[in-house]
Write a structure and sequence with these properties.
By secondary structure, the chain is an all-beta fold. It is built from no helices and 11 strands.
């Protein structure tokens, strides 16, 4: 069984920074693409950023230049460094991972989410 656990969310003032972490555990052969998504109240879940196994990254236009995704493959961790936060960044942030299991097969997994609130 695989688990993704996010942490690092909270309340921050506009212009502030937060760093989200995603810890992956379980019978993992390889962590393939990892990503962050978010869902604001009343809106659909949207893509934020992703990183492939070899470190190629992709960002939503709304966060380019402000957010940075990174990963620590030996530790099965992913991070999202968020800077210059805006009220419109307020959402529940979810970690996503495409994982190849030791027993075979590649599957898509989600964490439970962490709340980020940007407000003065």
């Amino acid at each position: 069984q695989v688990h993704l656990v996010e942490s690092g969310g909270g309340l921050v003032q506009p212009g502030g920074s937060l760093r989200l972490s995603c810890a992956v555990s379980g019978r993992i052969f390889s962590l393939n693409t990892m990503g962050w998504y978010r869902q604001a109240p009343g809106k659909e879940r949207e893509f934020v950023a992703s990183s492939t196994l070899v470190g190629s990254t992709n960002y939503a236009d709304s966060v380019k230049g402000r957010f940075t995704i990174s990963r620590d493959n030996p530790k099965n961790m992913a991070y999202l460094q968020m800077s210059s936060l805006r009220p419109e960044d307020t959402a529940v942030y979810y970690c996503n991972a495409d994982i190849t299991l030791i027993q075979g097969g590649a599957y898509d997994y989600w964490g439970q989410g962490t709340q980020v609130t940007v407000s003065s």
